[in-house]
Design brief:
heterodimer; A: Uridine Diphospho-n-acetylenolpyruvylglucosamine Reductase, domain 2; Enolase-like, domain 1; 25% strand; globular; B: alpha+beta; Aldehyde Oxidoreductase, domain 3; Aldehyde Oxidoreductase, domain 4; 7-stranded mixed beta sheet; binds flavin-adenine dinucleotide
Chain lengths: 291, 767
């Protein structure tokens, strides 16, 4: 590992200023479960590492059934999963973040880091997408918001401009009769990167018979986590049935643009996209009906 | 996985052989002598040695799978402040051909030298090219990046079939195929062709009602020990070299390092540290000669080197990928009439794949009147194959034991019944030649058939049960040990077999049994090469047999020496002393071992004995495994629901450690079966050199593995011991494949049977 400077940001403005001044040689440090590993393995090199864990907004975690969920970019996953109200309102999201690493990793890993690392296989992102989450970004010219599905633009690259950083993620409150789920396929039962991940969120009518709305997203089948708007749209207004669910799963499978790599084959990923979306929809429906 | 809490499930088999003697200590489960140290984190492993003034060594490794080294420019690295020494192959003496037996195969020291630091060619991605010693690991790492190697990249070959093809890139221009005691003409990658033959193959197949013939392909896999290779070496100006390292054989490290450095063997002292797993992967040296060179060149400072995980994967010895063809014929009433196998094993960059051992495993469970086995040792641009627990056995049994399952299915016979009808027993010939003495294959089959697992309902769809048996020959080898009697009656035992599986506990138990003292009164210690006589490596499942025998002999010598002291004390002839149940007596006189130990000062002085022996009589090990799996037909993922391993241990000295070996072998075998494989890119570079992408099973991937020990005592050992460490990794891949077949109707012939492969087969079958 190469030597680098470590600074604790004094404020958001301080962090922005340091990032802006670094000429791309500075990295934000949240939990460090991606960054430190990458620096040690020489996959990234940094001159400065700017720790944002101490900044107030970055450690936010608040949920209000009317206002929704606010998650600071550096809030560790374990805190989110340990909050009973959040777990019951957003089971799909908590399902996703509970998959990130193990106990030790979750003590540090954050949703902000998961998003900003911009891995196509990141587990929290499809779940955030189906929940229509929004990113709050700070930069040299102030704050801006961006839907989470527009945040990642390529493997390891985000929509953040020089000097910008992610401050918080906002998740709107779940609608009545809604439910969500996230499933991933890995060859083992632990310690793997998603071969395919699939998130689904559904809102049903009051009888639980018909889809009012649905959102579907896939991980690890495209250069970025993939929001499959057409698959969700196809469900809106349709009855809940194996056929409609299968059709949505088919659309998701069609949307997948997977590659062969050491973690799976393109054919396998395409097939799994359909299987996992179907299973995630089934589970989301079950949860919506139970609510 | 904890083993000590498991209930004893040991069956003593009734045999014609004399009944098992009554043991006081053997067969019990005492706490291991090295337990506390390990639990509290005080045990010293390979990387835990800190000497004043230590330098840190790092290796420059080839980014290419095959290339000629045109030039190495170290000037920029040498100029970096903090760099104290740089070594390349130019610093190594030329080494002549010399074959060294490691117990799990053999190594040619000339090739070992070429593997230590590449001379004119790099032969695999990760091959060591140069090394640096600096005052900190970070400076050493930076210096590594400053060494410029000019390569002429050559075409590489990874697959054995490609390596055997005409026109394949040749790794060593001077290599010629050895076949039937002669060398064939012309450059080749085929180092050896071996053959075993018996009977009349054509007639045998003509007698068969059913013939099954299949080809199998298996991937390169690594032992996956948790502790990376690590060493600290201090060379002195007087020529003395001291090596601390994590190894399965301190004497092997000494001899190999002496040969590679062309240094007198007596000037090297090797101090083995605790070892965090080896499984055959720590029988040969990688870092030690390099660290010695760097220590010398830095002005005799200690040099510490530790591999990263990626280096362990890329540059130590995994076991061979293979292509295996098996043809087996049987009559309708379940009698094998003929069998033929061809095994092609990847040796990696230098000759020496375990194809010979694989040829031994493939049919050695069965009585086969007509057979032919051909084996090929084939070079590829991969790290030199090392030994891995029953080297070559898992893939060989994967082939033969799945073919047998298919034969059973075709003739409609229960797979255990079929194996009982054909299974070897005392007096039968091995497929590879010798006659078996007392062995326990049939006992494992009978115990498996009696086990509730065998008849339990599967309890759901997409589930299947598989059976497979396995053989491993085991080794005896040379062992030495010494012991001294302390005034408080405890015995200090010095041995030279690094303890990778709890052997210290077994040695203490054998000595305590022999002397009639408490096991807590034996203090075993693994000492350095200057402090005990020669020991072969801890490998070949030999330690409890070989070193156990030496310790047993030591006990007899201690009794004789103590009898002399008693005779001195009581002023009688030594012959007048009797020893029974831990008590020395003569007429009215009687002293326990402990009491006599306290009076040695008046009885002629302290007692110390030593022994060294070339042991014989290793008893082959057999096992039968049962496994239930569930296959997710939509994802191809296999879940292991239940696993039962039955094995003959001869005599289980410490049953917990026998069970631990069985469970460990099964865990590794399941990893090999389901997910483990080296993945290469087009250019022959290894792309998954991490535990993230080289997928060994985690605790969540395995059920509790049930064990049943059967005991058919080995007549070749005074205590009936036979090796147990390797046999249990032989059946799992086949057992899992058979279970997958019974769950899905698909015969998998490729390892690993990973989700994408199985899914592809399921989808192909559906369409
Ligand atoms: C053993 C292990 C297992 C893992 N398992 C999983 C898994 O199952 N699923 C999964 O998705 N991931 C997994 N990961 C990856 C990692 O843990 C997650 O991506 C995690 O969410 C990263 O969060 P972090 O806070 O540690 O990020 P960091 O490492 O601190 O940061 C990650 C990246 O984001 C940048 N960054 C961080 N915060 C900000 C910000 N506020 N603004 C701008 N840029 C920022 C950093 O500069 C860095 O480039 C695993 C990692 C390890 C080591």
């Amino acid at each position: 590992m190469q030597a680098f400077d470590y600074v604790r940001a004094a404020s958001v403005e301080d962090a922005v200023a340091r990032l802006a001044a670094s000429g791309g040689q500075a990295y934000v440090l949240s939990g460090g479960t991606d960054l430190i590993v990458q620096l040690r393995e020489g996959r990234r090199s940094a001159r400065v590492v700017v720790d944002v864990k101490g900044l107030p907004e970055f450690g936010d975690l608040s949920y209000d059934p009317d206002m929704g969920l606010l998650i600071g970019a550096a809030t560790p996953c374990w805190r989110i999963a340990a909050d009973a109200a959040i777990a019951s309102a957003f089971p799909g999201l908590v399902e996703a973040i509970s998959l990130i690493g193990g106990v030790q990793i979750q003590g540090r890993a954050s949703i902000g880091g998961n998003l900003c690392n911009a891995s196509p296989a990141a587990d929290s992102i499809p779940a955030l997408i189906v929940h229509a989450a929004v990113c709050e970004i700070a930069g040299p010219s102030g704050r801006r918001s961006l839907p989470v599905e527009e945040f990642c633009i390529a493997p390891g690259r985000t929509a953040l401009q020089p000097g910008e950083l992610l401050v918080r993620v906002f998740v709107p409150p779940p609608a009545q009769h809604s439910g969500a789920a996230y499933l991933r396929f890995i060859p083992r039962n632990e310690m793997d990167i998603a071969v395919v991940g699939a998130g689904a969120a559904v809102t049903l009518d009051s009888h639980g018979e018909r889809f009012v709305a649905a959102r579907i997203a896939l991980g690890a089948v495209a250069p970025t986590p993939l929001y499959v708007a057409e698959a969700g749209a196809a469900l809106a207004g349709q009855p809940v049935s194996p056929d409609t669910i299968a059709e949505a799963a088919r659309l998701a499978r069609e949307a997948a643009r997977p590659i062969d790599d050491l973690r799976g084959t393109a054919a396998q990923r395409r097939h799994l996209s359909g299987v996992l979306v179907r299973r995630a929809l089934e589970r989301a429906v079950e949860r919506a009906r139970a609510r | 996985m904890t083993t000590d809490t498991l209930p004893a499930d040991t069956e003593t088999v009734e045999t014609a052989a004399p009944a098992r003697p009554h043991y006081r200590v053997i067969g019990t489960r005492p706490v291991r002598p090295d337990g506390v140290e390990k639990v509290v984190g005080r045990a010293l492993y390979g990387a835990d040695i800190y000497l004043p003034g230590t330098l840190y060594g790092k290796v420059v490794r080839s980014p290419h799978a095959h290339a000629r080294i045109r030039a190495i420019d170290v000037s920029r690295a040498a100029a970096l402040p903090g760099v104290k020494a740089i070594a390349t192959a130019a610093d190594l003496p030329l080494v002549e051909d010399k074959i060294l037996v490691t117990g799990e195969g053999s190594v040619n020291q000339r090739y070992q030298s070429m593997n230590t630091l590449a001379r004119d060619k790099v032969l695999y991605h990760g091959h060591a090219v140069a090394a640096v010693a600096a005052v900190s690991p970070h400076i050493a790492e930076e210096a590594v990046a400053l060494i410029e190697v000019d390569y002429e990249v050559l075409p590489a070959v990874i697959d054995v079939r490609d390596a055997m093809a005409a026109g394949a890139p040749v790794l060593h221009d001077d290599l010629r195929t050895a076949e039937e005691g002669r060398k064939l003409d012309g450059p080749t990658n085929v180092a050896e062709h071996l053959r075993y033959q018996r009977g009349d193959l054509a007639r045998g197949f003509a007698e068969a009602d059913v013939i099954v013939e299949r080809e199998f392909v298996t991937a390169t896999v690594h032992q996956g020990y948790i502790e990376p290779h690590a060493t600290t070496v201090l060379a002195n100006a007087d020529g003395q070299i001291t090596i601390w390292c994590s190894t399965q054989g301190a004497f092997a490290v000494r001899e190999q390092t002496a040969d590679i450095l062309q240094t007198p063997i007596s000037r090297i002292r090797v101090i083995p540290t605790e070892i965090g797993g080896g499984f055959g992967g720590k029988l040969t040296v990688y870092l030690e000669p390099i660290a010695a060179l760097l220590s010398r060149k830095s002005g005799y400072r200690p040099v510490k080197m530790a591999m990263s995980r990626a280096e362990v994967f890329a540059a130590t010895g995994p076991t061979s990928a293979s292509v295996i063809r098996v043809k087996l014929g049987a009559t309708r009433d379940g009698r094998i009439t003929a069998a033929q196998a061809e095994l092609i094993y990847a040796a990696g960059a230098f000759p020496g794949s375990p194809v010979g051992a694989g040829a031994g495993v493939i049919f050695n469970c069965y009585r086969i009147p007509n057979l032919q086995i051909d084996g090929y040792d084939v070079l590829t641009n991969q790290p030199r194959a090392g030994a891995y627990r029953a080297p070559g056995g898992t893939n060989a049994a994967f082939a033969s034991e799945t073919v047998i399952d298919e034969v059973c299915e075709r003739i409609g016979m229960d797979p255990i019944e079929f194996r009982l009808r054909n299974g070897v027993r005392e007096g039968d010939y091995r497929a590879t030649g010798p006659v078996y003495a007392r062995i326990g294959l049939r006992e494992t089959l009978e115990a498996a058939r009696r086990h509730p697992h065998y008849t339990a309902p599967l309890g759901g769809p997409n589930r299947g049960r598989g059976v497979a048996s396995g053989y491993w020959g085991n080794w005896d080898g040379t062992s030495s040990a010494s012991a001294t009697v302390n005034p408080d009656g405890a015995v200090s035992l010095s041995e030279g077999s690094p303890d990778i599986g709890g052997s210290r506990a077994s040695m203490a138990m054998i000595l305590a049994e022999t002397l009639g003292i408490d096991v807590t009164d034996v203090h075993p210690r693994i000492v350095d090469t200057d402090s005990v006589g020669y020991n072969d490596v801890t490998g070949g499942s030999r330690t409890t047999h070989g070193t156990g025998w030496a310790v047993y002999d030591l006990g007899k010598k201690l009794i004789a020496a103590m009898s002399q002291r008693a005779a001195h004390l009581w002023e009688v002839e030594p012959e007048a002393i009797t020893f029974a149940d831990g008590v020395f007596s003569c007429g009215d006189h009687a002293l326990s071992f402990k009491e006599l130990a306290g009076r040695l000062g008046e009885a002629g002085g302290p007692v110390m004995v030593s022994t060294t022996m070339e042991t014989t009589g290793a008893g082959p090990g057999f096992a039968t495994h049962l496994v239930d799996v569930e296959v997710d037909p939509e994802t191809g993922k296999v879940t292991i629901l239940r696993y039962t391993a039955v094995q003959d241990a001869g005599t289980a000295i410490h049953p917990s450690y026998v069970e631990g070996q069985m469970q460990g072998g099964v865990a590794q075998g399941i990893g090999w079966a389901l997910n483990e494989e080296y993945v290469y890119d087009q250019a022959g570079r290894l792309v998954n050199a991490s535990y993230l992408d080289y997928r060994i099973p985690t605790a969540l991937d395995l059920p509790m593995i049930d064990t049943v020990i059967v005991e058919a005592p080995n007549p070749g050992h005074p205590l009936g011991v036979r090796g147990v460490g390797e046999t249990p990794i032989v059946p799992p891949a086949a057992a899992v494949a058979n279970a997958i077949y019974h769950a899905t109707g698909i015969r998998m012939t490729t390892l690993p049977m990973s989700p994408p492969r199985l899914l592809e087969a399921i989808l192909a079958k559906e369409s």
